[in-house]
Structures are given as C-alpha cells and as structure tokens.
Amino acid sequence: MAKNKDARPPTFAVSVVGLSGTEKDKGNCGVGKSCLCNRYVRPDADSYYSEHTSVLSTIDFGGRVVNNDHFLYWGDVSHRGDEGPDCKIQVIEQTEFIDDQTFQAHRSTNMQQYSKRAATTKLQSAEKLMYICTDQLGLEQDFDQKQMPDGKLNVDGFVLCIDVSKGCNRKFDDQMKFVNGLYSQITKSKKPVVVAATKCDEFVEQHLRDLHNFVASKKNLLLVETSARANVNVELCFNALIQQLDKTRGKPKTVPYLEAQKVQRQLVASVTDRFEKLMMTMVRDYHTTWKGVVANMKGNPDYEEFITLEGSRKGRNMFTKHIAQLKQEHIKRRREEYLTTLPKTLNTLLSRLDEVEHLTWTEAQSVIRKRSDFQCWFVVLEQTPWDESDHVDNSDRRIPFDLLNTPDGERIYHNHVQHLLSEKRRVDMKERFKKTLDRVHFISAGQPWEEVMCLVMEDEAYKFITESDRRDVYCRHQQEIVERAKEDFQEMLFEHAELFYDLDLNATPSCDKMSEIHSVLNEEPRYRALQKLAPDRQSLLLKHIGFVYHPTKETCLSGHNCVDLKVEQVLANRLVQLDHGRSDLYYNSANVDKINLCLLGREGLSQELANEIRAQSTDDEYALDGKIYELELLPVDVNSTLLFSHTWVSTFKPHGCLCVFNSIESLNCIGDCVGRIRAEMAQSRREKFAPPLPFILILANQRDSVCKNIPILRHQGQQLANKLQCTFVDIPSGAFPRKFTEFQIKQGLRAVLEGLKQNCDVLAPPPSIKDMSEVDLRIVMCAMCWDPFSVDLILSPFLESHSCSAGQPGQANALVLDKILGDRRRRIQVTVLSYHSAIGVRKDELVHGYILVYSAKRKASMATLRAFLAEVQDVIPVQMVAITDSQADFFENDPIKELMTEGEHIATEIAAKFTALYSLSQYHRQTEVFTPFFNEVLEKKPNIESSFLFDSSSRECTTGSGEEVFQTSPPHSHSPAYNAYYPDSDDDNEAPPPYSPIGDDVQLLPTPSERTKYRIDLEGNEYPVHSTPVGDHERNHKVPPPVRPKPALSKPNVKKLDPNLLKTIEAGMRSNRRTPRGLIAHSNDAEASDNYADPVDTLRTRGFHADDIYAEPDDTHNRLVKIRNSFGLHGGGEDENGYERKSQVGRRPSKYKHRSKILFSKTKAYQRRFHSDSDGEETGPATQKKKKGRAHRGSEEDPLLSPADPWKGGIDNPAITSDPEQEDKKLKKKKTTKTPKEPKKAKSSKPPKPLYPPTRRTWESNYFGVPLHNLVSPEHPIPLFIEKCVDYIERTGLTTEGLYRVSGNKTDQDNIQKQFDQDPNMDFVALDVAINAAAGALKAFFADLPDPLIPYSLHPELVEAAKIMDYTERLQVLKEIVKKFPSVNYHVFKYIITHLNRVSHHSKSTLMTADNLSICFWPTLMRPDFENKDTLSTTKLNQAVVEAFIVQSDFFFHGGDVCEGDGAPGPPPPPLNHCHNMVEALLPLQLPPPLQPQQIQHALPPEPLI
User: Fold this and answer.
1) SS (H, E, C) 780-837
2) How many whole angstroms separate alpha carbon 1120 and alpha carbon 1292?
3) CA 622 to mean position of chain CA atoms
4) What pLDDT is stored for residue 396 in this prediction?
5) Looking at per-residue confidence, does 279 or 112 come out higher?
C-alpha cells in the first residue's frame, strides 16, 4: 500500500487476475475479469459493456490504451466505507492479449508467463490511458482520456476470478489447475487475496461446491460469489479486499449469491415499477418521442435511479412498449366506439325487419352502400385495414366501411337482426297484453296495477314480457282509460247543460245548487267511472262550473278549439274591408263579347281541348246560344311552372277555367292545382278585390282504353266537384270517336257565363250604401266548441257570398251582408259566437234573430242549444241548423237521426226554422239558405226592438244597464210603444217550407201554414212583470209559478202522434197529428199551492169575463190581472191589444222554454228529480213510482223506445200515447197519493214496499223471478221461455254481430217478458222480435232467478278446479263437479251451455267466440258479489270455467271426446261474390238521386210493435 503522509485519503491498487491466454488455454470466452472491473469502476448500466475482447490487432495493441502491455488500467474508484475513512481504489486487470493474425500472445516488454506476470506487484507503463471499452481502441480521442498516475502502480492486493459457469470449451478442472499455480505465485507476494466466483448468474452447482472446497482448504482465503451482468456482490468483493488492506474497517458480511440476487431483483423491480408509473403519468399521447420524455424526466429520482440500474436502452424499450400500448388502446377505443355506433347505424339504415330478415351479411352491406345517407354514417378508406392507416388519427367519427368485414361487424349485424326479431316479438306481446287489458271490463280509472294483476296472470303475453313492460303497458292503458273517462265526464257535463245554465253570469252556485248537481250526476255511470279519482273529478266539475258562470274565450275548456278563436282566425284571413270603389271592377255579363279561358290538363290534354275548341270555332269566334263570343285560350299543363307564378292570373285575366281529366292521377293533379289557384286568388282578394274564378271539371273520353274506368272517374270527378263547389260536365251517352264533344264544350262555356252572371248580380254595388256603422238587422250565430265540424262550414253560406264584408273595427267575430230583403237592400250584421260567449249577448244586447248551430253527432251540442234556447225570448226568431256529413247519415245512423229529429221537433214546437248543412256537400252553402229567416226577422223587427226596450227598462229597475258587446241601432220611428202587445207573427205562412235533412224534394215537417192549424195557446206559461225587485238567489233558483191545469176539454181536431215517429220521418209522410203542448207539458209538474193561477173557467163565479182564460195573483197589490185569450179564442169588449182597458201593464214576452214541451221538460226534469230525491215527505208508493220511471229508461242503442225524452216515439211513451183525459186522470192520481204529515199514524200504517225491488222487473209476474223448479216438470225439464228464446235465436240470429254482447233495448226486453206472461204461446217470429232484445230477455231470465243457475255452494270447488295446471285433469274434475248440480239446474245448464257452444261455431259472423261468450255469460250464471275483493281475484278463473264448459260441452254433457283446439271449428263462411273488376266494387259508392216520399214509403213498411 502506498502511504501518503499528508491528509489525502489512502489509495490502494487492486489487481484483478484469472485464467487468461489463447483460446486453447481459456476456451471461447474469458472468466469475466473485464466485466467485473467494468461493473465495479463504472456501475451505471449505460457504462457497462458485456463484451471485452482480448484478441487485438498489432495497432490496437500498440495504442496508448493497451500500450504494448498485457494489463489494462481501469481507472480509480472513490470509496467511502461505513466505518473507515475515504479511500481511492485503482483497478488493474492482468490479462493476455492475442494477435488477431497469429492468434498468439503479443510480444511485450515482459515476456514472463501469465502466472508469474500476474503476481507481480510493481507495474510500469508510461502515458498509459484508462481503458473504457473495446470501441475505444483506435478512437481514443472520442472517449474520456485519463492516464495512469505517474505511469506506474504498486499492487496492494489481488482479486482472483474463477468462472463457475459452464464455460465455453473449457473444463473446470483445467481452470482450477491454472488457479492453483496462479494462487501459489500470488501468495509469494504476501499480498491479500479475495477469490471472486464470477458468472454466478449461470453457475454450475458442482463447480461452486468445488470452489468452496478449494477456498476452505486455504488459510484466510475469502470467497465472494459475484455476477457482473446482474450487478450482484461486485462491490462487496472489492470491499472485502479493502478491509483486508485496511484493518481499521469493519469486516463486511459475505452474502451468498442467491440471497444477494434476490435483494438486487427486488431493488430493480421497485425501481422499474416507479419508472413505469412515472412514464404512465407523464406519457399520455402515443405521438410522444423518447427525446422529449428524457428531457421531461431528467432530474426525477425515479428516472435517474432506473437509468442507473437498468440503463437508457431498457428505458427506451419500456417507453416503446408503452407507446405501442397507448396506440393499441386508442385503436381499441375507436373500435369500441365504432362497434357501439354500428347498432345505432343499422337501426337507422336497416330498421325494417322484413327488409333484412332474409339477407346475408354481404347482401346487407350492398344494401347499406345504396342508401342515400350512406356517406353520413360510413367512410370508405383507400388504405386498409383502417387501424393501420392514418384514419386512427383522424377526427372523423364515421365508421370505416372495412370494419364491416371483420367478425365483430358480422356479429353485430346478426345481433341486430335478432334484436329486430325479439323487439317485434316484444312489441307484439305488449300489444297483445294491451288487447288483453282491453278485454278486461272490470278495470276502472285509477285502479292500481296490483288489483288488476291477478286478472291477467294466466295470459301468455303477461308471462312473456317483463314486469317493467307490464307496468308500462298498464300505465298506458290506465292513461287511456283515465283520459277517456275524463273526456266522457266532460262530455256528460255538457250533456247536462240545463243543469248548469239556469244561473246568471258571474253568479256563485249555492249549496243547494251544488247538492242538486251532485244528486243528478251521481246517477250517471260516467260520473261513477271516476270514483277512484274523486279529486280529479271534483276538479273537473269545479272547473266546468267556473267556466259556465264566468265564460271567456281565454278560459274555454276547448283551448285553441274555441269557436270564438276559430271564427276570428277565419274571418281575419278571408274577409276584406268593404271597398266602395269596387263597382269599377264589375261588368255586365250581357255585354261580354270576349271570353278568356284557361284550359288546365295533364300530359297534353289541355292542348287537345284547345285544338278541339278551335276546330269548332271560326277565326277564334264561337257561336253559343245565338251569340258570337271571341275566345282566347290559354292551355296550361298542371306541371307547368306558370302555375307557380303569382302574376299569370292578373296578366291573362281569365273569366273561367276548364279542367279536363281522363285518369285518377290527372284528377288528383287538377284538385291540387285548383287549390293553389284559389289560394292565390284569395290572396289577391285580400289585397285588391277580384271576382271569383269559375272552375268547370270536364271528363274526357278514353278512346284507347276500355270504358270500364269511366264509372270510377265519373264518381271521383263528381266527388271532387262537390268538394270544390264547381260544375261537373260528364261524358254524354253514346259512342263517339273524339275525346271531347261539342256538347261538353258548350256546357262548359255556359257554366262560365253563368258564373259571370252570378258575380255581376251578387257583386253589383247598390245605388246607395248607408254608413258603415248602421245596420238593419243584428243576427247572432251560435255554435258549440269542440263540435266535430269546421267553422268554415257554418261560415260558408256567408263567405261564399261576395256581398259579405268585414264588420266594424274591433268586432273580430262579426261580418256584414248586403242583401235585398223586401223592397230594398239591407245591411245585416252577423256575429258568430260560441254559446258561452253568446249568453251575455242574449241578456244585455239587442239581437233581432238567432242562428243556433248544433252537431247531429253530439248530444252535448244539442243539450247546450236547448239550454241556451230555453232562456231566449219567444219574440226573437230562431233558425236552427243541424250539421252532419251527408244526407245518408239520417238513414244510416240512429243517434244522428235522433238528434236531427229532436231538432226538428223543437223547431216545430217554437215555430222556428230548421235546416241542415252537410260537410261533404256544397248543398245549402249559399246565403239564400237563410233568406227566409232574414225576411222573418225583418218583419218582426219592430216587435223585437220594443220588447227589448221594455225588458231593458225592467232590468234597469233591478240590476241596472249592462255593458254592450256591440252597438245598438237606434229605434225606428215607426216602432210601437214598449207596452204594446206583440202577438206571434203569421209571417211563416208566406215563408218557404223548412229544410229537412233529406232534401228539398221530401218534406218531413208540416208547412208553416199547417202549423197554424194546430197552434195552441200558451195558457198559464206567461206571467206579469212584478214590480218588486227580486234577489239574485231567488231569481236564479225560482221559476214563474206554474198555472193550475184547467180541466181537459175534448178537442175533435187533436189526435195522437204516430208512435213510429222516426219511421214516419224516413218515409217522408206529412202528418198533421200534433200533441197539445200546453196541457201535457205541465200536467206532471202542477202542485197544489196558493200561488197558482187559476183557470178562468174555475173563477167565473167570482165575476170575471168569459174570455179571461187565466187570472194570476199580483204579489204586490193582492189583485188579479186578467190575461185575455189572444191565441185564437175570440172575445169581445177589449181593445186591439187583447187587454182590458183598466189594465195598463204590458204583457212581458215569455221564453221559448214555455213554448216547447221538450225545452220545458228538460229544464224541469232536473228540478223534479232533485226535489223528489230530497223530499222527505214522499211516501213509499210515490218513491217507488219514481224509481219505476227510471227503470223504464231504454238503452242507448235504441233511444227511440226510451221514455226519458217526451218527444221520442216508442213503446210506453206517455208523451205520445196519452191524451188529455188520461193526463187528467194521472194528475188526479198523483194528487191523491200525497197525504199531509201524520207522524203518529205513519207508525201504525202498512209499511211501504221496499225502495229497491229484489229484481229488475217493475211488474208482478208468476213466471219470471220464481224458483227454477216451479217452472219445469219431468216431462219438460227446460222452461218454455228458455226454449222459445233459444229456438228463435238459433233460427234467425246466428249471423248477428255481437250476439249476447250488444245489449238490446230494455223496454223491448220487458215487453217480451210481459207478452209471455199474458200469452206463453207467443210467436217470436210473428212479432218480429229484435235478436238482441230476445238475447237480453234470456239473460234477464237467469238474472231474475232467486238463486244463480250455478249454485253458490259449488263456486269454491270450481275455482280450485280452474287452478289445476293439467288440462285433462282439470276437465275431469269439472265434470265431477257438474254432476253435483241439482237435477233441475243440471238440465237447464246443459241446455244453455250446448246452445252457447253452437253459437260459438258461428263466431266468424257473430264475432262471439267461446271466450267472448263466457265473458258475457259467467256473471249471469254465477252472480258473484262484485263488491267483495275476493271476487275480483277469481274473476278470470270463473270466466275460464264457463269458457271450458262451452268449448267442451260434448265432453261434459254428451259423452264426447275432449276438443283439441280452443273451440270447435265453425262451418266455413258462405262464399263471397267477389267483384270481377274495380268498377263493380265502386258502383255502390255512387250517390243515389234524392229519395221520393213514395219510394221511401214502399221501402220501409211499418214494423209491428211488441
């Protein structure tokens, strides 16, 4: 050891020796001396070189690094021990370099053998450079150049390297022999030695064991197991030698290689893990470069430590792998994104199952490429596959089309097809489940799913779909039920209009009124349908009441469908302000010499018509009806761009347009073009007034095709002409070779001239026009919101007239007509309002007449009209208008027939006019339809205005004047005084007959002249005006005191009304038989009271005149005011006004409800029902009579037989079959039933009959409602009534649709049973009994039995049997239960079930399968208690039991086998006579000519009444 006397750290020179020499001596590789030195001097991975060759060229051997020496100077290492001071270790490697030419050792200055040379302790080599790696040789200037200090070194210790690996062509024993010799030489130097077992990462266990033995045999020899490549124990080896050189240092612990390797691996793994995390944190983009990463990581301890241990190359490799992983993850994400989008794309491009169900994936790809929106979803790349192209870095999110060629694409396609299949199955099952819910009639609005679930659990669709789908379907079903129930409830409120509209506007209903409303509505099924949604029902009711008493168009329940809003929109779009200068635009048609004709056609047809017209003309002059016209023709094709120009009409100025067609396509094009042309004309009319353009449809002959299409074209052309309200020119009969005939052309020209003439007559300006603010008549037209027709229909009679203009500014709902009435032109203001808006006008404004519109399809519309009309003063003329689709509705639709007939009856009773408008026809769409009504209003105008002044003065005394909606015209100077008498006008004698729903050729109602023959006085309905003010509550809830009925007198000219009223109307027969209005209308409502007006004939003894009909007590002065007979009973001694001169009080006009039996009865019906329901003094029989009246109410299917409305004709209708004498008897009987209060006697009196009888019948019967065993015998086990009903149904009713489901009229059912009670041998066929009535009577027979046909005691057994899963076992158990029936019940049950089985065989015509029949019959046969919740849970099971009996009737009762299907197969339906061609199929669509009365009379013979 070289000792320094100064304070510098000691320096030790260590020589590393080991086997060296030629390949023959050492083998193919060395023992690892260079690697051990490299790892110790430069431990960083980047500075470690695993290859150090000893074969050098002469040049490299002579270089400064080798310097012609056989040793290498590796440099020095500063070392700081844990205990000792710092020191510096200089490392020398003793080796032997081989010449690359001779493969012998290079010659050097020291030619000793290696063993002697390696053991030397003194080394000297001038300017020798530090060795780094083999690449340094010859390129010393490129590496760090460091010289060996002083050119000489003294070796202080040795590291003896022994390779314990397998070696390369070298035997371990030979190596150990060499080592023994070398060790012997080293020991001579007295220097410490440490044995380093090298290459322990590849050690051979035997070699290592031999080496341990060798070391153990030597004294104080230390062995360290090392691995330079793995960097294990390298530093430990040199530290152990330094400890031997410097005893002051602590002896290091020798660690075996395996343990040290484990520690090293853990260290490397930890460093690597931290480096990976660092790289994952800092490198997120796969486009990042290694250079950038190194710059960012430099200085980071995790990075530096990893580079030290593993090196930059390993770090870069890890970076490369990480980048590749990032790219793969990016591609994977893009692929997943594409694969996620692909199903949605397929759902868009291939959404139809029928389109892709049978396509292969390749065919489907072809279909996708042909889609128009293919480019929106896919992109076709030039370079494929897409994940190896630049598309992975593209922001384009469209799917690469080559992705579809992958297995994933095909898999998704097949999944898509399966999804469509499963979704179709799921949707079908949901719809099937929805239909199942529709068939369950027990589901009510607001019923929870849990209560309904038990009813449908056995359904196949229920089992298939998920619970969420079930709840979703049921929620949708409930929403439909609730919405339908709410709509029905709202419609019901409108149908009870008389119940709500008896109060004034802005009034508040009292508690009594609300009780009355609830009492009446509680009897309605539509009211009870919302029982479980009582808060919603109450909210709807309060909302309706709030609207009724505070109506505005903003709060209208119909919202945007309010009539007021609709009318404002239509009038704003179609009306123009009156232009006084428009007279310059008109011309006289008599002076027209030139006609501009526009010819409209398709595919050259218009040009052919122009050629034909020119061929019939001479120099463009055409002779027509003795006059020459110059024609200018403009043929236009329907596809021409000329039609889209806004200037061609004003440029050409056509007088008419001939539209020709020869096919359905051309006809459709014509319709569209006419619509566009009219829209342009309407626009020009708003800007500048222009006359209308006549359009004429002409059907061209088809020369080149079969004439079978002519009827179709004729029918379609006529329909389009009706829709467009234009003329249709048909092909004349006979054969002709050309497409157009001279007759057709002349007819078209005549239609054009007729249109010009009408424009001239209608549009010609009057000689003088009054000021805009003055109008002669004020008419109010009322319509109901939500009615199923467009307001354009009711406005068309005015808007189609060109004498129509807008009203004054601010009156958006008004229009003004200029019409010639009487001897001069009049201005008529028509205000079109909804009924709720017209209520205020009716009370406060001057109105000369009302046009009341109602829909014949809606009962609520008629009810609102009745409620409105009831409060209109009877001096104001009324025009009633019924709206329906066509005339055929009257004969084909019973509800429409009923409402139209009711409207005509009301019009007849109040002497009003009645007409009908049809939405599918232009019939009655001109203003002339209202001309008779306008004439009547004009004639009655003085009386109307005087009555208004009289009524206004009365109101000012009590309520004050009301706000006017429109200005009131000043009274005319010739108007009579307000206290004059206003008799009913006889103007109707001169007016045309009222319009009927059939047409002008058939008159359904008597003419006004005939009405006067049967006009009856109003008797006690009119009452004097009280001078004492009446409070709001009393005015709203009190009506004028009824008059005591006078004894009925026999009148020879009064006859009963024909019971078959509607049949009479259909036959068009004119009947002059009328029921007296005054007596019958009030007889049922007359009550004993001191305030009644007494008939005059009962007061004659008091000194009144003979002509004084009634005398009413005056509440103010307790005096009687006599009212004269002013309606046809002549008297004397009075003035022309019909009053005694001492009475100066004018007669206040009555209201229409006192002139119409229908209006009065409807208004009084609610009050009677409310007061009778709340009257506690009513005796039992009286109450029972009231209930009986309700029980006789007919079904909705045949309302004519129902006595609920007195105007309807039918069986047991007192309004038709009664006469005055019978009414008088009823009145007396009613009075005798009422007794004064005697509480004490009531206790001892005979108890009254029960309020609700145990059966549905209202008569006593010895046959119906008695036990079954009383009706049969051993010889006749089946009751006769059942046999007759079944026999009649099977003979005549097995083709009736809805048999046993559609309930017959209850009155007819009762009459069947009544007739059978009187005559058990009645013949159903002779009486022509309705099938549904017979079926209903049969079901009623079982319903009236004291006990159900299926005994209650067997119900539990039947329910348990229904739960048996095995079908055959279930039938066997049911068969055993049937045997337990009582004998009487068994035979009847067998008979009726067999009958139902036969009915089910005809399900194709009746639509009544065994399932439907069981639904209709099981409640009748079992009579369960539906108020019991347990019953609801077994409903489906009970129905299934009855269905099983019907289907398997042969098995249960006739010894047959079990049927395989759900029901026995029915007989094949009769063959249909198919039409041979389309013409025959469409011929019935042609509208027949107007029916003549005699034709209807023969076609509809009267049916016998039962």
Assistant:
1) EEEECCCCCCCHHHHHHHHHCCCCEEECCCCCCCEEEEEEEECCEEEEEEEEEEEHHH
2) 66
3) 59
4) 84
5) 279
CA distances from 1119 to 406, 1116, 1126, 1350, 1360 (A): 108, 8, 21, 71, 80
| Residue 740 · residue 605 · CB < 8 Å | no
What pLDDT, on a 0 to 100 scale, did the predictor assign at position 1497? 33
As a whole number of angstroms, the distance between CA 911 and CA 545 comes to 32
Q: Residue 82, Cα to own-chain centre: how many angstroms? A: 88
Q: Are 834 and 563 in contact (CB under 8 A)?
A: yes
**601-635 pLDDT per residue, tens:** 988 888 989 999 988 888 878 988 888 888 888 89
Residue found by looking up tokens 């023969």 in the block: 1498
Overall size of the chain counted in residues? 1506
Closest to 191 measured CA to CA, from 229, 244, 267: 244
1442 against 1124, higher pLDDT = 1442
Q: Report the distance separating Cα 813 and Cα 403, nearest Å.
A: 66
Q: Buried b / exposed e across 258-268, counting CB within 10 Å, b at 16+?
A: eebbeebeeeb
With tokens 């249909």, the residue in question is: 1472
Residue 822 pLDDT level (bands cut at 50, 70, 90): confident
Structure tokens at 1488: 């027949």
DSSP reduced 3-state for 1399: helix
Three-class secondary structure of residue 1166 per DSSP:
helix
What is the SS3 assignment for 1271?
Answer: coil
Query: Three-state secondary structure along 998-1065?
Result: CCCCCCCCCCHHHHHHHCCCCHHHCCCCCCCCCCHHHHHHCCCCCECCCCCCCCCCCCCCCCCHHHHH
Phi, psi for residue 465 in degrees, rounded to 5? -85, 165
Cβ distance 1478 to 1283 under 8 Å?
no
Cα-based distances in Å from 715 to 719, 724, 1062, 1093, 1212: 6, 14, 31, 63, 46
| Closest to 493 measured CA to CA, from 545, 551, 563 | 545
| Range with the poorest average pLDDT among 138-142, 461-465, 722-726, 1312-1316 | 722-726
The CA-atom distances, in angstroms, between 566 and each of 832, 851, 880, 1116 are: 10, 18, 21, 49
Rounded CA-CA distance 400/331 in Å is 12
> With contact defined as beta carbons under 8 Å apart, do 189 and 156 qualify?
no
Which residues pair with residue 727 across a beta bridge? 696
Structure tokens at 126: 């001038």
- Looking at residue 1002, its pLDDT comes to 32
CA nearest neighbour of 907 among 854, 947, 970: 854
With residue 840 as reference, give the H or E element that holds it.
helix 835-844
**In this structure, what token pair is assigned to residue 326?**
């990032």
CA 313 to chain centre: 69
Q: Which two tokens stand for residue 2?
A: 């070289």
State the DSSP code for 358. T
Cα 143-146-150 angle, rounded to 5 deg: 160
Instruction: Write a three-state SS string for 222-289.
Output: EEEECECCCCECHHHHHHHHHHHHCCCCCCCCCCCHHHHHHHHHHHHHHHHHHHHHHHHHHCCCCCCC
The phi-psi region of residue 153 (left if phi > 0; otherwise alpha if psi is between -120 and 50; otherwise beta) is beta
SS3 1213: coil
Judge whether 632 and 621 are in contact, CB under 8 Å: no
At 516, list the tokens. 């009355």
Residue 311 main-chain phi, psi, to 5 deg: 95, 160
Q: CA-CA distances (angstroms) from residue 719 to 708, 726, 922, 1171, 1485?
A: 18, 10, 11, 54, 10
304-352 pLDDT per residue, tens: 999 998 899 999 999 999 999 999 999 899 889 999 999 999 988 888 8
Is the CB of residue 703 less than 8 Å from the CB of residue 739? Answer: yes
